[in-house]
Amino acid sequence: METNIGIRTYRQIETLADEIGKRKAPKQPASTGLLAPRNMNRPQEDGAEQQSAYRVASVFNTIRSMRMEKQSG
To answer: Is the pLDDT of residue 65 over 90?
Structure first.
């Protein structure tokens, strides 16, 4: 029978702290690429050109037009 659970509790907490310490740190978000935030120094604008969805759509449209040119000619 265990009369003092403090020692066991301390060891469990110490084990948990060691496991958490061994975990890898989360990756930092990419600072480059298609979906990376742009122009963070300027105040937010409502323009569509600043939205990541607009940039993705423009890239897809470019790829689509290149594919259509290649298929037709």
So the answer is: yes
